[in-house]
Design brief:
448 residues, alpha/beta, Rossmann fold, 3 domains, 4-stranded parallel sheet, two-stranded antiparallel ribbon, 10 strands, 11% strand
Amino acid sequence: MEKRFVWSGSVMFLDLVMFNLSFIIAYLISVLIYGPLILPMKTYINLIVFSNFILLSILGSFGLYGTKRGLFDSEDFYVLLKSIVLCYFIITAATFLSRSMDYSRLIVTNTFVISFLLITVSRSLLNVVLVKLRVRGLDRQKAGILGKTDSGESILARLNERPALGYEFAGFYDFTPHVGGKLRMDGVKTVFVAVPSLDQEKLIDLVAECEDIEFKIVPDLVKLISEPLSFDEFRDIPLITIREQKTNMFYANRLKRLFDVCFSVLLLVFLSPLFFIVGLLIKLDSRGPVFFKQVRVGKDGKEFLLFKFRTMREDAEEARASYDDLNEVKGLFKMKDDPRVIEVGYFLRRTCVDELPQLINIVKGDMSLVGPRPHLQSEMRFFGGWRRERFKVKPGLTGLWQVSGRHELDFDKAVLMDIYYIKHMSFFLDLKILVKTIPSIIYSEGRW
């Protein structure tokens, strides 16, 4: 507990340093622009002290000083952005209500913009340092799995895939009366509970017995539920109600299309120099066209021609059949070390730059900025029954499952996330996914 407190305190201190450094930078920028018209720095002391308090309170309330083993990821990036914006509006409102109009709005605005950038960079660097330390054996924490089930095996696979979390697997444990003593004797600090039929009384007793151990329960029954839950209806019997959520078709058919076209056209204009450079690199690397075109399945099962930057040799499609046995993801063809990929292709795939030509598909109306991924016709055999619901909307350049683990999610969970997105589609959900897409790539959540 003391170690966690020190860690949270260190992150808080680092955030404060970055925020106050941001104010100094913003103030100096204003001095360079307006010179003697700017009030002395000491005038802003009360405002900055108040801002420090509000910022720490908001970041803490949003869980950015929590104790999770994963540090700064795409979700934290989005929460940080939301926290900074909220703090900015609170401070702006406070200065207005207090009639402190002498404060420079440019300084206040620049302070929060720069602080978001500096806090993001500082937390990312801290994350890199901690990852390296954990890989070398420092800050390790023993973790056990209660129940050797399919869910338990999936948890173990994730622990092995992500050594940066610093978990040291202690073993599988059976849910017996003496398991608490065994966990403490082995020095386990985190237990993943993957028992399909939990005896609630025994679990409560186990948690009470092991006060110094953190328990994380792996959902079983509710993992296939994509609808919002509410608890009703009798006061003495807790019932979970699953209500059907209807897709917001007005947004899906009208506003979303307008947003897609406007934003995609702007991106195509802005990224045109990058398109030229990438095209040149592909031509210098190997023979063949710059763009790769492939028939994919879109909304309502209709086929369309998808555009990507070519990342493989020219005969890649003909050679694919010989590698089908090495496919690593159900429902779509993925290989971690695909021998068909050209040299520049590895970089394009790692940065997801190869996906950018799909902006053309978005302008044409075949795709959307956010939505389920488009699949090949040969992969449609995996989409029987309830899974076909994901084809009710246009496929997207990015989507909910892409920013939630990508290949690390199993097939059904990825499909469920697509269905969840369809039933909860909104402008703000699209904006959240778009904001999280870039950090998802940067923090290697989409390695291939």
